[in-house]
Amino acid sequence: MEFLDGPPSVHCAGLKEGSIHLSPASSITFAQKPGAFVLSPEICTSCSFEVRSVKLFAKRPIEELDGCKIRMTAQSMTSVTLLRILLEERYGLRPEYLNGAYQDSDDACLLIGDQALEENERRRFNFNYDLGSLWLDWQRLPFVFGAWIISKSALQPGLEKTLVNYMEATKRSVENFKANPKQALDKWLAKYPVKLPRSVIDDYYTALDYRFTDERKESLKLFFEYAQKKGLVQEVPLLEFL
Fold this sequence. Notes:
The protein starts with 7 loop residues before the first helix and ends in a 13-residue tail after the last helix. Helix content is 43%, strand content 20%. It has nine helices and nine strands. α3 (77-90) packs across α5 and α6 crosses α7 (181-191). It has helices at residues 8-17, 29-32, 77-90, 113-122, 131-139, 160-179, 181-191, 198-207, 214-229, and strands at 22-26, 37-47, 54-58, 69-71, 96-98, 108-112, 127-130, 144-151, 208-211. The strands form two sheets. It has a five-stranded mixed β-sheet. It has a four-stranded antiparallel β-sheet with strand order 1-8-2-9.
């Protein structure tokens, strides 16, 4: 096996172009190439309440962002798609979406991952909104930010057995992590240091929930339906599992 580092956008591109067989990638990727992938039936990246690392930071309340400039992240199309669905379908807003680095003239920005966690600590914006919480409050379902997406090209003799063994090992790894997160995070931070208090990191990983429950599968399908309605994906894919 070969492991590749990178943000969700890089992994999603690799899945779609065929250079990556498996990735815990942005969930929208599954719908961007219907029929090309299967999902792990047991593992995803979700949360029961706040996800904390996918946030809209704004100078004014979210209800007042109609026609305003919102800077979007380039790291995750799932987060971009979710924000558009929330703003346009839940709040009835039509903002101006901008790419590139945040400018002082912007009214709001969408940040994910370390950037969002770091912005939480800076407190430069008067308002911030956790996208996982906004979806949960609206749909009464936990949002699925990431799915373990597997290319069907990996389901062939010589690869499938390795794939299945790897997914079983991953499941055990998640269980071990939940049982003893400190040991795992110590190793991770030694390789990937971040400028955040350790308490923030511990709280963040406590909030994540990796169980791909029936409720979360229902939520993912609903997300795809909204994305298709808005023309952000061509069709609602059938959820196929390994």
